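Give me the fold.
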Amino acid sequence: MEFDARIDAPLIRCTVTSDRSLAAPVLCFSCMAPIRVVDGGERIAALGGYAEVRLPDLSPGTPHHLTLRHDNPDYAPTNRAWLPLGAYLRSDDGPIALPPLPAGVRPRPFRADGPAPALRLCPQPRGFAPTGGTLKADSFRAAPDLLVGVDALARRTGLGAFLDDAGVPLDLRPNAGCAPEGYRLEITPEGVTLHHRDEAGARHGAITLLTLRTTHGGRLPCGEIEDAPRFEWRGQHLDCARHFYEVDTILRLLDLMALMKLNRFHWHFADDEAVRLDLPRLPELRRTHIRGEGELLPGLFGGGIRSGGGYSRADAERIIAHAQDLGIEVMPEIEVPAHALALARVYPGTRDPNDAGTEVSVQGYPENVMNPAMEESWRIWEAMVADVAAIFPFGVIHLGCDELPPGAWAGSPAAEALKTREGLDTTDDLQGWIMHRLAGRVAGMGRVPAAWEEAARGAQGIGHQAILFSWTGQGPGLDAARAGHPVVMTPGQHLYLDMAHTDDPEDWGASWAAIIGLEDTIAWEPVPDDEPELEDRIIGVQATFWSEFTTRDAEMEPMLAPRILGPAMMGWQARGTPDPGVLSALAQEYRAIFDAMGWRHAMA
């Protein structure tokens, strides 16, 4: 069997060559967005970007040509990630897998735009006063158990032992004068003194030493380093709903985050395509873990004949424990009220049976919104909140609330009656009412609610001092901060690391928000110069990785590396200090760390 596809914008031209006679097989595959057939077959089924196309009879060795284009005439495929993924043939003999198209980022030459800074370290510290000379350090000798986790991290990542009885002296000194999470390092030819206020500061100081040992070839520049983070929230998001990542992959990501001094892992395990985490009150959701032939949902987003998996409570506890050892908190996210395609199919009582609406999500899914007028919806939402609260010790629970389809609930008599009862005028009012009510449940459990920026909409809005994540740009986040909400900035134009690195058709990734090169990750400022009062309300920044076109775990790695250095720099360094030339030079220096980890990167 052979399968090939190429971009001839705005078209996608495919070729299928069978090694046997097949009577009218059906070609199944998924694309970035809904598609139509121009010629060569008949589309007989579709769900979002997934399509089934009936082909004519195939003869052995005779190529068959098929031409596709997106339903939306404004969508033109821009790179290889837009080609059909997870393709297979459904035949009388059963499903037949087709060879996958070459996937993932192709490493390209990478040029540093400036000389390496005095300290080859990302993020750069607040201050460095060199004294001249170097300290040869293969390892360190320290008495407290405080750095055992850093030593384990160093060994796991291939960077070599950090602690050793024969290492250079490392003296840890508690110091109330250090800022929270901050540290001060005094590096002399005789040894190192690490001043810290808290455990996090000690860990960050040790990671600085570990990094410098690697990037400076075992010879640390002598001097005094003074350091502390700008923001308390320095995050990385991972979408495990569209693609199921193995637990070990998530643990590797947490290790990389720790080396970057990132401290919040936003675990997105629930979306249209699956709810991956086992929830005791909702065991039926296990039906969403696998998709493909004969499953609840077909092979959306490159799922192929059959793919996926789920996370047990033991898996979640393993991830949480690993993160805590690294000083990283894990924030769970459920999805309310939209992005609920699979969930609503498992629990049809969450939809109004008399709903005559025709809403379709931006991904092309019909009926992916739960209805707040249905008691079943509230049973599900409250069960999800209760279960994740029991599993995750972190004090923040993310409730989702993005991309409500236009016209949602407009055809539902039950929703209209609810709006009348509650004095609600618009769809945004109804969504705000949902989020306010559910956030109240979260707050009543002693937790802090969080949501995407849309949760602030409506006459009421989410309220409850919820943390809002601003993703379409900075504007909604600034509005939320002005209204008194804590805000995490995650603008798609700069920190959506699923976007393509370049506009090269041989590259990989989405492009709806932007093309994001390394320097673009820092080409912005979270707090406007003329509104310094928002500094206390904008609590952090976060990079995001969505997995619509990820079919294997390893494809995620070069999308993050080296660009994860940008959000690390933005989250830690003081206003005005992130520099494109320095960032570019540091990316070259971090090759040694990525290579030691076996972490694939987008640099040839």
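The mean pLDDT is 97.
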